[in-house]
Amino acid sequence: MTRQTLIENYPHRVGGHCGSAAMRDLLHWQGLGWEGPPDEGLVFTLGGSLGLSYLRSSDLFPPLYLVGRDSDFELNLPHLLGAQVQVLTTDDPREGWSWISQEVDAGRPALIWGDIAELPYLRVRLQMSRHDIVVIGYDEAERIAFVVDNDRAEVQKVPFDALARARSSMSFPQPTRHTTYRIAWPHELPDLAQVAAAAFRQSAANMRHPTPPGVVDLTTAVSGSEGLAAVAQLAADVRTWSHLPADELEILLFSLSAFIEKAGTGGGLFRKLLADGCADVARLTGDLATEDLAVAARHCAQTWTEAGRAGIEHEVDVRTRLERVASAVSLLPTLELQLAEALESASRSLAAA
Hints:
Layout: E1 4-6, H1 18-30, H2 40-46, E2 50-56, E3 64-69, H3 73-80, E4 84-88, H4 93-105, E5 110-114, E6 131-139, E7 144-148, E8 156-159, H5 160-167, E9 180-184, H6 192-208, E10 223-226, H7 228-238, H8 246-262, H9 271-285, H10 288-310, H11 318-352
Helix pairs in contact: 1-2, 2-9, 6-11, 7-11, 8-10, 8-11, 9-10, 10-11
């Protein structure tokens, strides 16, 4: 007998980043929050996963990769909120599917990874294996899974075969291995100020003292680094791009803009989400240092956005665009350091409250 099941009234909304949007929906579904369900910025912020990884490698296309979070958001956030998390991985597609069906059959949404290139509703060629999606049901007769994705407002019907390919991808940045997060949420959330203090402290540490491995493997990079060193490396590299042929420069500028604004960052390389979340923490706690942190994060986000947009002003000559990008990026090492300092200051303030 074939089975069909669907978690009804799942509270899904479009989001800026796959991980924080998925976790926002899961918290809302679980009935958890502070003065109501948290917005995505607050969810991202409380994960303590702000970071920065940058690399250039001829093995990649485009030959540049930039990401503004660490690799463990999906673990960090539940742990900081008092949840228990199991990360299940396998190379056996039947075992991987069994984890999804067990969760959904028990009435629990299943948070999983999928390669964006294999998810038919996204219609993209770029491969990225660590895209968070949530399965809320399936129909064995039709051989489809019901999936929610931060990039789409509606529930998506994904054929089992396509989902299996997305779940067994070997593409960048790492094999997907049918990764499934099994989360046991608490009945209520801990004190917001203490959670935020720990999250801010962790994000600052990610920038000052990044602990490998990050989202990407830097061992294959021609040029690459993490944390505050990454933004300094990027600023130095951009100044050397002026000798490149125009077609190569176009690729780099377009790619840089995409990674800052379009690659599921929520805008401004995740710093806009951080600014929104810090503003929520400040509003809910009344902490003045966190208000200052929100301002620092907003300034940082805006400068990243300016750098990204300057690179794709196609009515402007590519060399002039490069100069504008380099000018904006040159400000970022100082702004990122100030952001780390503001994170530390707000953490101390909240911990002492």
